[in-house]
Every structure is written in C-alpha cells, then in structure tokens.
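Forgive a beginner's question, but might I ask you for the amino acids of a protein and the tokens describing how it folds?
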Amino acid sequence: MHLPQAMGNCAYFLKFFGFIYIVTTLLPALVLLAGVEIAYRIRETKSGAH
C-alpha cells in the first residue's frame, strides 16, 4: 500500500506551503511595523536634536 507514503508527502507539502504562506504574510507586516518604528524613532531623535 502506498497510501501512508502519499499521506506523508501530502502532509509534508501542506506544512511546507503553510510555512511559506505564513512567512509571505507575516514577514511584510513585521518589516512594515519595524520600518514605521524606526522612522518614528529617527523623527523623534531629529526633533529632540532641535
């Protein structure tokens, strides 16, 4: 029977694509938040310098 092997491959691909999906959806959001925070801190330091 090749069913268990097929099920294992299916689960592996689901995990793999699930990981890619999470990375492609969460990573841009984290980068955006980090960019906003960095820009805010730079603005704060510039306004503080003045």
